[in-house]
Design goal:
- The protein is an alpha/beta fold and 249 residues long.
- The chain has one domain: Carbamate kinase, CATH 3.40.1160.10.
- It is built from 9 helices and 10 strands.
- Strands 4-3-5-2-1-6-8-9-7-10 form a 10-stranded mixed sheet, with helices on both faces.
- Helix 5 runs parallel beside helix 7.
Length: 249
């Protein structure tokens, strides 16, 4: 008799993508083939019955902090960044529905013509029906990053983990592109991330996860199939930030 397929490690997750992840090899904007590749990988885990929410940054279009350093008012610049995340959310919605995965975009800033307002109970109900929910416009407040929005929304929907997609296969003690002897952590404690300033997510997001014991799986998005692996066996491909202990891969 054929072996049964292993069950996913997590049943409900929030996937955090940077805006830059949508650029592909470009320097700005959205690369449609990259968008479709991510959508097809999301489809793989949704078809396993995993409930998935998404938070996407806006750095490929506009970054509020960068605008503020150039002399713009920080609050205004952050609102511009929130609108950039809405553009990315709509692009991802289109890509997902092209591969027959039904979605809802929920925005923290009201824009009824293109997105639902964020309502926690409605978001959970969409997830239960197998829809991917894309949370746009961050928390709806300036001075908070999309990392913090991801942590907040993950806790509100009772996600079992945050999947933090990056361009490296986990968290290292040094930049692996510059230091050939850099070592990858298999697991990390929240406090070690904060004390060593490891830039997994911003300190507010890490503190929120620590207070609520929400694990963060850091993995390489550029390798095809890693979103599925992050759900099935996260320790094998990345770094798990959690309440356990710090150890090397």
């Amino acid at each position: 008799m054929a072996d049964s397929q292993p069950s996913p490690r997590y049943k409900r997750v929030l996937l955090k993508l940077s805006g830059e992840a949508l650029m592909g090899e470009g320097k700005y904007g959205i690369h449609p083939p990259t968008l479709i590749r991510i959508a097809s990988e999301v489809k793989e885990i949704v078809q396993l019955g995993v409930q998935l929410a998404l938070v996407i940054g806006g750095g490929n279009i506009f970054r509020g902090v960068a605008g503020a350093t150039e002399g713009m008012d920080r609050a205004g610049a952050d609102y511009m960044g929130m609108l950039a995340t809405c553009i990315n959310a709509l692009a991802m919605q289109d890509a997902l529905e092209k591969v027959q995965i039904w979605t809802r975009v929920q925005s923290a800033i009201k824009m009824e013509q293109i997105a639902e307002p964020y309502i926690r109970r409605r978001a959970v109900r969409h997830l239960e029906k197998g829809r991917v929910v894309i949370f746009a416009a961050g928390t709806g407040n300036p001075y908070f990053t999309t990392d913090t929005a991801a942590s907040l929304r993950a806790m509100e929907i009772n996600a079992e983990a945050i999947l933090k997609a990056t361009k490296v296969d986990g968290v290292y003690d040094a930049d692996p592109k510059k230091e050939p002897n850099a070592r990858r952590y298999r697991t990390l404690t929240y406090m070690d991330v904060l004390k060593q300033n490891l830039h997994v997510m911003d300190s507010t997001a890490i503190s929120l996860c620590m207070d609520n014991k929400l694990p963060i799986v850091v993995f390489d998005l550029t390798a095809r199939g890693n979103i599925l692996k992050a759900v099935m066996d996260p320790g094998a491909i990345g770094t798990i930030v959690g309440a356990g202990e710090t150890c090397w891969a």
